[in-house]
Amino acid sequence: MENNTVSLTRRRLLQASAVLGATCLLPGAMSAVWAAGSDKPEQATVRVGFIPLTDCAPVIIAALKGFDKKYGITLVPTKEASWAAVRDKLVSGELDAAHVLYGLLYGLELGIAGKAQPMANLMTLNQNGQAITLSAELQAQGVTDAAALKKRIAAQAPGTFTFAHTFPTGTHAMWLYYWLASAEINPFTDVRTVVVPPPQMVMNMRIGNMSGFCVGEPWNARAINDRIGFTAATSQAIWPDHPEKVLGARRAWVQQNPHTARALVSAVLEASRWIDASERNKRETAQILSRRAWLNTKEQYLTGRMLGEYDNGAGRRWLDPHPMRFFREGEVSFPWHSDGMWFLTQFRRWGLLKDAPDYAAIAARVNRTDIWRDAATAIGGGITAPSGLLRSSTLLDGSVWDGREPETYATRFSLNRMGV
């Protein structure tokens, strides 16, 4: 919430603007002027959907800690039952924006996750923090990693084992496919895959509907606590510091409400910074998220992995060098073009796109770095944009992704469904 100093600063700036007709004011005061001057948000209330997952944290904290009010809006978090529900409500306009899977947003843009809809990625909400859980039954059979799973699958008829992810073009599908393929397991012929909403993963594994799943936290930690599964791989072991959820909206909404979009990103970005500022803040965030209104689960399921403290449920414990991150001096939230392009390469690899897309053009129109830059300026405090739009990463199989020559990267994988 604003303190007296900020309120006084706002009054003085507005008085100065009235007297001088000024439109260019001190950078540190920009958010106060934008909230009440010519750049006032077009909407007073912004409805933002979320799925009960740890990585919805920036949206919830922005609303509960008053960061939204600072930028002249009231953020209303709306709990949704599935990613399909998030998609449908975004498209219909029932939601203004949402905590959403990166791949779902790009799938909508391309018309492979529903009817084509021009979309906007306003910022990345987090990196890392997802996992692949295998059943206790597989563990009892000696399956502890992808290589052992490959041998077990080879001894059975194709499709014997069922694996779940959360949405056909979503991040969890891509992490699961990539991990399976790294052991030469074809995710489309060697196993059966199904779509299950995140909060229903543990229950479905408990009753034997699947042998494994890929989902966000806290549901992997919950499976360990319930003694029905163990963590076979974290998503950050597949791609260290990978992009995960984004703050997504329809492009038409952003065009109609540019000041509101900037205010929303400012509020959520400032909340991200608050979460990552200290261990104390992370623990408080876990406590808040555990409440009935948000994740409705035990705090202990969230805290450990939010702090990067991992126990895989199979005898291994470690402090992960790539824990779930929300801020990291703003770098986490920047909508890197190369991040979006990577999902396009995987859509190509797995036959979701029959022809090579214009990778760079799609990323440029979806990933709104302009809004992110305006929001970062509004917040102040030394948040600076990266010098470029591409970043380089080395993935589980040793492949290097840097956003250059994306079609060459997409076609390099020996295990693929191109031409299917």
Fold blueprint:
Blueprint: H1 4-20, H2 30-36, E1 45-50, H3 57-64, H4 67-70, E2 74-79, H5 83-92, E3 97-101, H6 102-110, E4 119-124, E5 130-135, H7 136-140, H8 146-154, E6 162-165, H9 171-182, E7 192-195, H10 201-206, E8 212-216, H11 219-225, E9 229-234, H12 235-238, E10 245-250, H13 251-256, H14 258-276, H15 279-289, H16 299-306, E11 309-311, E12 317-319, H17 337-349, H18 359-366, H19 369-379, E13 393-394, E14 400-401, H20 406-410
Parallel strand pairs: 1-2, 1-3, 6-7, 6-8
Antiparallel strand pairs: 3-10, 4-10, 5-8, 5-9, 11-12, 13-14
Main location: membrane
Protein name: ABC transporter substrate-binding protein
Keywords: Cell inner membrane, Cell membrane, Membrane, Signal, Transport
Give a structural overview.
The chain has 420 residues and is α/β, with parallel strands linked by helices. It contains 20 helices and 14 strands. Strands 2-1-3-10-4 form a five-stranded mixed β-sheet, sandwiched between helices. It has helices at residues 4-20, 30-36, 57-64, 67-70, 83-92, 102-110, 136-140, 146-154, 171-182, 201-206, 219-225, 235-238, 251-256, 258-276, 279-289, 299-306, 337-349, 359-366, 369-379, 406-410; strands at residues 45-50, 74-79, 97-101, 119-124, 130-135, 162-165, 192-195, 212-216, 229-234, 245-250, 309-311, 317-319, 393-394, 400-401. A hairpin with a 5-residue loop joins strand 13 (393-394) and strand 14 (400-401). Helix content is 43%, strand content 15%. It starts with a helix and ends in a 10-residue tail after the last helix.
